[in-house]
Amino acid sequence: MITLFIKLLVNALAIFLVGNFIQGIHVPDYVTALWAAVLLGILNVTIRPVLKLLSLPITILTLGLFAFVVNGFTFWLAAKFINGFAVDSFWWAVIGAFIVSVISTILNRLVLGSDGKVGDIHNDNIRDI
After folding, report:
1. Which residues contact 39 (CB under 8 A, 6 or more apart)?
2. 60-66 CB contacts, 8 Å cutoff, 24+ apart
3. Most buried pick, 31, 45, 107, 109, via CB within 10 A?
4. pTM of the prediction?
5. pLDDT tens digits, residue range 35-73?
6. In which element (H, E) is residue 57 found?
7. Residues whose CB is less than 8 angstroms from the CB of residue 27 and which lie 6 or more positions away in sequence, other chains included
8. Is residue 99 included in any domain, yes or no?
9. Mean pLDDT on 4-14
10. Residue 79 banded pLDDT, cuts 50, 70, 90
11. Within 13 Å and on the Cβ side, how many CA atoms surround 128?
């Protein structure tokens, strides 16, 4: 549960950074970025798998590049529902989704380590008493 919370905070930070450094994406404060991260998480669990399945033929034809369009669409869709979180155009959403993905991957590696989990206790280290 703590890992999920940390990943949510890291994604919010990535959205906030992108909103402050990319001219076509606007995020006024960290609270807005946090709400955007929550909605993006929900969209990535619910709508994005359906979109990936429906777009599978074109994704294969474009050798996977259409996946960037699907990610950009979910990013753009989140911006439509969050007040204060704005994306100037669809292509800014594609660029923003890509950069948020790269930043959150790097930050997750730095914060959580290579296994992507909090702590270093594994089931192999727990002994029965």
Report:
1. 78, 81, 82
2. none
3. 107
4. 0.84
5. 999 999 999 999 999 999 999 999 999 999 999 999 999
6. helix 56-61
7. 15, 16, 18, 19, 20, 33, 36, 84, 85
8. yes
9. 94
10. very high
11. 0
The residues near 84 (Cβ < 8 Å, ≥ 6 apart) are 26, 27, 28, 29, 32
Residue appearing with tokens 């970025």: 33
User: Beta strands of 68-115 (E only): which ranges?
Assistant: 86-87
In a domain, 23, yes or no: yes
Note down the domain range covering 61: 2-115
- Residue keyed to tokens 């969050």: 82
CB 107 within 8 A of CB 14: yes
Dig out the tokens for 73 from the structure. Answer: 């669409």
The pLDDT score that the predictor gives to residue 126 is 45
